[in-house]
Design brief:
single chain; 225 residues; alpha/beta; Rossmann fold; 2 domains; 6 helices
Length: 225
């Protein structure tokens, strides 16, 4: 009998207008790399542009909640800075039109315009629509595993609720390496999922779905109403 476990068929959503971050630990990198690749694969397949997928890494899973929180805050600063820079440019242009393009206008425009960046930033500059947190915890001989798994799980949920941005839970809490290899879609997997489905792919789809739905919710739109 086929397993009933799993998210079912992924919903189809247009991610072309989304900006999504993947924040991942580097500990257990073989599995991490595969999971991140799986998430990117489905983000791209859902229409999210390569330049709108931002990767950030931290040493281990314990650092994920803080990193997710600060990465989102940084994207808010980028969004505000981009908006202000665009507004100043429009203001300077408007003043130039009013003053008829005199020499003084040129000087005024120069003083209002921010310094031109060496290279125009690629991609969207608004705050992230969703963030995928990826980590792998493997149980050892001590209680370290339990403490870290509990702290990270609660930490990521708190960040999600405090900021209102979807944080996709990409933390594998496994008993041995074989279980991790299986869930990362790699050879050498063991257990009931030994045939290897990359769970990172599910996280990518979840990020797009929640990113799209969050935008709709913020506009007062609820499915079926």
């Amino acid at each position: 009998m086929a397993s009933l476990k799993g998210p079912g068929a992924a919903q189809k959503h247009d991610g072309s207008g989304l900006r999504i971050a993947i924040v991942h630990a580097r500990w257990n990198s073989t599995m991490i790399d595969a999971l991140v690749s799986g998430a990117k694969k489905t983000l791209l397949a859902s229409g999210v542009k390569e330049e709108n997928i931002v990767l950030e890494s931290v040493p281990g899973s314990y650092e994920l909640p803080l990193a997710v929180q600060r990465v989102y805050a940084a994207s808010q600063i980028q969004s505000a800075t981009s908006t202000v820079a665009g507004g100043v440019g429009s203001l300077a242009s408007g003043i130039g039109d009013l003053l008829g393009g005199s020499n003084s206008t040129t000087d005024l425009q120069g003083s209002l315009q921010p310094a031109a960046p060496k290279e125009e930033p690629k991609g969207l500059r608004h705050a992230f629509d969703a963030i995928i947190a990826v980590g792998v915890l493997i149980k050892g001989e001590s209680m370290h595993f339990e403490y870290i798994a509990d702290a990270v799980s609660h930490g990521l949920m708190k960040v999600q609720l405090d900021t209102g941005v979807p944080v996709i839970f990409g933390l594998l809490t496994i008993l041995n390496e074989g279980q991790g290899l299986a869930r990362a879609g790699l050879e050498g997997g063991t257990g009931k999922e030994a045939n290897g489905h990359n769970h990172g792919e599910d996280w990518g789809y979840a990020a797009v779905e929640l990113g799209v739905k969050r935008k709709a919710w913020s506009e007062g739109k609820v499915a079926g109403s």
